[in-house]
Amino acid sequence: MTFPANILDKILRDKKLLAKMRSETCATEKILKIRGLTSQDVEDAIYDGAALRLRPKLMTVLVDIIGLMPVLLATGTGSDVMKPITIPFVFGLITSTLFVLIVLPVLYAMVREYELRKHGKLIVQEFED
Predict the structure, then answer these.
(1) Model confidence over 50-100: pLDDT tens digits?
(2) Are 109 and 43 in contact (CB under 8 A)?
(3) Are 94 and 46 in contact (CB under 8 A)?
(4) Which of 30-40 are b and which e, b meaning 16 or more Cβ less than 10 Å from the residue's Cβ?
(5) What CA–CA distance (Å, rounded) separates 42 from 94?
(6) Dist CA 128 CA 94 (whole Å)
């Protein structure tokens, strides 16, 4: 199978760009290792992490809650048995969402700010595979 020249050029350009990005990322990580982290770096990491978790967490919780709505709104036979089971489940989903998206980032920020004040800097530690 042969590719047109413009597609091959694009693939090669993308590979070069990817290699350049990887080398810049490695350089940035080395700088962070040398100078440590600032409070702005910690805040940026918290926002990035929360943004990454927002969509999957909300999608999962909303699908579960919407799936349990018929059980919560049911008035027929057996609903008196199922409602006490589903109500804690739904409120547990809501509580876990608030915990993951609000409480954990705040606790992380508090711990890292304390560590930053105590030691004067934060050191990045990487684990080898």
Answers:
(1) 888 889 999 999 999 999 999 989 988 888 888 888 999 999 999 999 999
(2) yes
(3) no
(4) eeeeeeebeee
(5) 27
(6) 36
CA distance 110 to 103: 11
Closest CA to 66 of 80, 86, 49, 51: 86
Query: Cβ neighbours of residue 34 under 8 Å, at least 6 residues apart?
Result: none
Query: Which segments of 1-103 does DSSP mark as H helices, in order?
Result: 5-35, 39-73, 79-98
| Cβ 95 vs Cβ 85: under 8 Å | no
Cα dihedral sign, 38-41-43-46: negative
The angle, 0 to 180 degrees and rounded to 10, between the axes of the packed helices 79-98 and 39-73 is: 170
- The residues that bridge with 37 in the sheet, in sequence order, are 122
**Across-strand partners of 122?**
37
| pTM for the structure as a whole | 0.59
Residue with tokens 């590719």, as numbered in its chain:
3
- Both tokens of 93, joined, read 């989903």
Q: In the numeric block, which tokens belong to residue 91?
A: 């409120």
